[in-house]
Write a structure and sequence with these properties.
Elements (H helix, E strand, L loop, with lengths): L12 E6 L5 E6 L10 H16 L3 E5 L5 H12 L4 E6 L9 H8 L3 E5 L4 H14 L4 E3 L10 H22 L5 E6 L3 H13 L4 E6 L4 H12 L7 E3 L12 H14 L8 H15 L5 E6 L3 H15 L1
Parallel strand pairs: 2-10, 3-4, 3-6, 4-5, 7-8, 7-10, 8-9
Antiparallel strand pairs: 1-2
Helix pairs in contact: 1-2, 1-5, 2-3, 5-6, 6-7, 8-9
Length: about 325
């Protein structure tokens, strides 16, 4: 089961601009990976699919919000390989049920099971038990019912992507002092940290939290990185109140990025992270010159944002 040829790798790194503080900003276009609207979850989803193959499983079980980029990609990857897919989603108050990620996952034929947040572990166990009773060998992307045990698979995707970054630096004679990205589950930042450790890198890898508070978020990043209590940079000052919440400053960053560079950011992940990066560099970036922002994708969420704006303006 090969998935490598479905993605356009390595993704390009392009120069954007010089900030007033003197920092030169580059962007790694993970949104251009070339499958199901791209994004970091393409790499991570492919790693899960390959691990599923190695284990001899035949039914994919994912978890996450209706807005989840990962679930959209998992559903599409499974559909392309004729693998049945089921997504467990928490009931979420105030979350629109008709976002593009949800529609795309549903269109790919993924089965959906909803549960209360307090009942996720029980629902995972019940779902896996039911699938086994039907004769399947299910694969749950997070490991056990409590979301533990499959960290190595998740980290492998961006441990490898870190090597891409280092090869680009060597070829172009550019050394990044800092790498920024939106940090949600912690998988992508954890993988980059694991890659840095293995390659002896020295840059700061700054995760801009899109939702989690420091204790839980940093713990997740360390777990996916395979780290102990080493210091990491997981910034929680730019969450704007929590998951999916944004303000006029983030909207301005999204608009400016489209006007100047024709690049779409979304307010849930990449727009929030880019705005957070700008504020972080203004506060702490005096000695930093070359900066890489990882565009982790989420194009369907950008169109959700445009739809919401249009509704408000009507």
């Amino acid at each position: 089961m090969k998935t490598e040829n479905r993605f356009l790798k390595p993704t390009p790194v392009q120069y954007l601009e010089k900030l007033p503080g003197g920092q030169e900003i580059f962007i790694k276009r993970e949104d251009l990976l070339g499958f199901s609207f791209g994004g970091n979850k393409c790499r991570i989803g492919a790693a899960f699919l390959e691990d599923m193959r190695r284990r001899g499983a035949d039914y994919m079980v994912s978890y996450g919000s209706r807005k989840s980029n990962l679930n959209r990609v998992m559903a599409a990857l499974c559909r392309s390989r004729k693998i049945p897919c089921l997504i467990i989603s928490p009931q979420e108050e105030g979350v629109q049920e008709d976002g593009f990620n949800a529609v795309l996952a549903d269109d790919m034929g993924a089965e959906r099971v909803f549960c209360e947040r307090s009942a996720v572990a029980d629902t995972v166990e019940d779902t896996l038990r039911s699938l086994k009773a039907r004769g399947y060998q299910p694969y749950y992307i997070y490991g056990d019912a409590h979301g533990m045990g499959n960290e190595e698979t998740a980290r492998s995707a961006y441990r490898d992507a870190y090597d891409e970054i280092r090869r680009w630096e060597e070829k172009n004679q550019v050394e990044f002092q800092a790498i920024f990205l939106a940090s949600g589950t912690g998988m992508t930042q954890g993988g980059l940290l694991a890659g840095r450790r293995e390659r002896g890198g020295r840059e700061e890898i700054v995760g801009i939290s899109v939702a989690r508070e420091e204790k839980a978020g940093a713990a997740a990043v360390r777990r996916y990185a395979g780290m102990g209590n080493e210091s990491i940079c997981f910034e929680t000052d730019y969450r704007c109140g929590g998951y999916g919440i944004y303000d006029a400053g983030i909207e301005n960053v999204i608009q400016t990025m489209m006007e100047r560079h024709g690049i779409a950011l979304d307010p849930v992940y990449t727009g929030k992270a880019y705005a957070g990066m700008l504020r972080w560099l203004d506060r702490y970036g005096d000695k930093i010159r070359n900066v890489l922002f990882i565009h982790t994708g989420g194009l369907p969420l950008y169109f959700d944002y445009l739809n919401k704006r249009m509704e408000v303006e009507r």
